[in-house]
From TrEMBL, chain A:
Residues 3-238 form the ABC transporter domain. It comes from Marinomonas rhizomae. This is Iron complex transport system ATP-binding protein. It is a peripheral membrane protein. The keyword Metal-binding does not apply.
Automatic annotation (TrEMBL), chain B:
This is Iron complex transport system permease protein. Keywords: Cell membrane, Membrane, Transmembrane, Transmembrane helix, Transport. It comes from Marinomonas rhizomae. GO terms for biological process: siderophore-iron import into cell. Its main location: membrane. InterPro entries: ABC_BtuC-like, ABC_transptr_permease_BtuC. It is found in: Cell membrane. The keyword Transmembrane applies.
Length: 255, 318
């Protein structure tokens, strides 16, 4: 396993949010991190993206401590889409997406022809190519989210860490995004994503990791993870599990 | 837009350089400016000894202060931030006045170093009071309060040490009056900070996207912040040591430039230096030609434009 945590505790201001977690991210899959608000899923994701330093334990990338690897090298392997982003002033969509190529460019950040091909590609895939010359600050929330996703994709890493990528998106764009993740996964990318919508996770992800109060409660295929007892224990929800009539995946219906 | 702005800025700068050589208490026609550079010509003193060094100095100080402002705004991600708003300029000023009033016979060439210590201490003070994760508004307001405190300390020093008051008072309003080749040579070594600042253009673009994205893109956010602020403090201190605190230049110039050429630092940093140079040349030209032979300090001219601009920014920020 390329990405794993070992007895990892991490949090803010000396308070551990994620507690002694051992986790191996299965390679080549789409993995959803699920759990109620404040359970530590974003914190775990940030620790795996080396945004937060562990208080205890380690995160390993290919068997080595994440914090011992050169930041530029690691940026060619792991990309993170944060949950919230500032709205940059005076930056055009195409410039922002081009920033995703930073781990490959020289000190002045010059974009070469190969970079440009990748940039055009991800802008097409995320459906923002016609916004290329607009300012990021003038876009709607959903459009902006797709621009940030495009920047993360331009980083062209084998691993993608996404923190609630569907935020601000209308339903059709959410579905488009999940299909895009499927497509990227078929190209060989491993994708770890925090999601709120359990049914979306069950339908589009191969593997679910469920967290509660900083610990991993259960993990595995959607069929084995998504149970009525789990929903009761983790989310305090009375719900039934049915089969999705179209995708044949498990689906929860709240009572 | 960005590519069109640069030549226009350069032409404006050249025009102002010339205007600063031509106009003042006496106007010298364009043809005689070149003659004025030769020893023995009628205008040698006015052009070569008086206006030329002062013009170059205004250009460099304007560029350096604007660059310092862009660096600070870049890493703090706040259009309200600049060395003078954060109290760094007045910290440098206080240290310099302290030095001048307690060691009146000391070597003036130490002034940049003294100012540097003062601005460093002011920066540390702000850091200590606000911490790393404080809101930008809190930082701006604390900075303004600290700047006012340093200004009142300066006033106090000048009251207790009245002998040096004339010298210091003139210096404190931020003026280019009486500055010549000596001051220019004191400033030159500090120009070395400029290439280091330009070196930071790419990571500054990325820190603009937030720490999380920047780190994910391979930037060491804390190191970058430290490097940028250190360069900004150095640039500010050297300028303050020579011209006194020239207010609002570091705030207005980068902000104006961002509106002109956008937020990419590869173009923003060089352009903001041009805009800063243009603004200070304009301020000094106005200061010398409004009511000759009486001169206003250039710092008052920049404050007349800068203070309302700052208020407007503050009111716009939610």
């Amino acid at each position: 396993m390329s990405l794993s945590t070992h007895n990892l505790s991490v949090g803010y201001h000396d308070k551990a949010i994620v507690k002694q977690v051992d986790l191996s991210i299965p390679e080549g899959k789409i993995i959803a991190l699920l759990g109620p608000n404040g359970c530590g899923k974003s914190t775990l994701l940030k620790a795996m993206a080396r945004i937060l330093s562990p208080m205890e334990g380690q995160v390993h990338w290919q068997g080595k401590n994440l914090h011992g690897i050169s930041s530029k090298k690691l940026a060619q392997q792991l990309a993170l889409l944060p949950q919230t982003q500032p709205i940059p002033e005076g930056i055009k969509v195409k410039d922002l997406v081009a920033y995703g190529r930073s781990p490959y460019t020289g000190f002045w950040g010059r974009i070469n022809r190969d970079d440009q091909v990748i940039i055009d590609n991800v802008m097409t895939e995320t459906g923002i190519i016609e916004l290329a010359d607009q300012l990021v600050s003038e876009l709607s929330g959903g459009q902006r989210q797709r621009v940030w996703l495009a920047m993360t994709l331009a980083q062209d890493t084998p691993y993608l860490l996404l923190d609630e990528p569907t935020t601000y998106m209308d339903l059709s764009h959410q579905v488009e995004l999940m299909h895009l993740l499927r497509k990227l996964n078929l190209q060989g990318k491993t994708i770890v994503t925090v999601l709120h919508d359990i049914n979306q996770a069950a339908r589009y992800c191969d593997y679910l990791i469920v967290m509660k109060q900083g610990e991993i409660v259960t993990q595995g295929m959607p069929e084995s993870v998504l149970t009525e007892t789990m929903l009761k224990d983790v989310f305090s929800l009375n719900a039934q599990i049915h089969q999705d009539p179209i995708a044949q995946t498990p689906m929860c219906v709240v009572e | 837009m960005a590519t069109r702005s640069l030549p226009i800025l350069l032409l404006t700068l050249l025009g102002l350089l010339l205007a600063n050589l031509m106009f003042g208490a006496v106007s010298i026609p364009f043809k005689q400016i070149l003659d004025g550079l030769q020893i023995g010509s009628e205008h040698y003193f006015t052009v070569h000894e008086y206006r030329l060094p002062r013009t170059i100095l205004a250009m460099l100080v304007g560029a350096m202060m604007a660059l310092a402002g862009a660096l600070v705004q870049g890493v703090i991600r706040n259009p309200l931030a600049s060395p003078d708003v954060l109290g760094v300029s007045h910290g440098a000023g206080l240290a310099a006045v302290f030095y001048m009033s307690f060691f009146p016979n000391a070597d003036i060439s130490w002034l940049p170093a003294v100012a540097l210590v003062g601005s460093l201490m002011a920066a540390l003070m702000l850091w200590w009071l606000c911490g790393q994760h404080s809101s930008t508004i809190k930082m701006a307001i604390t900075g303004v309060a600290l700047a006012a405190l340093y200004a009142s300390c300066i006033d106090f020093l000048m009251l207790v040490k009245p002998l040096e008051i004339n010298n210091a008072l003139l210096w404190l309003t931020g003026s280019l009056w009486g500055r010549g080749w000596n001051q220019l040579s004191m400033l030159l070594p500090w120009l070395l900070l400029m290439p280091f600042a330009l070196w930071l253009a790419k990571p500054l673009n990325l820190i603009h996207l937030g720490d999380d994205s920047a780190i994910s893109l391979g930037i060491k956010a804390n190191k970058l912040r430290l490097a940028s602020l250190a360069i900004a403090v150095g640039l500010t201190a050297s300028c303050v040591a020579i011209c006194g605190p020239i207010g609002f230049l570091g705030l207005v110039a980068p902000h104006l430039t961002r509106k002109l050429v956008g937020g990419r630092h590869q173009i923003l940093l060089p352009s903001t230096m041009l805009v800063g140079a243009i603004l200070l040349l304009l301020a000094d030209l106005a200061a010398r030609t409004i009511d000759p032979p009486i001169e206003l300090p250039a710092g008052i001219m920049t404050a007349i434009i800068g203070a309302p601009y700052f208020l407007w920014l503050l009111l716009r920020t939610k």
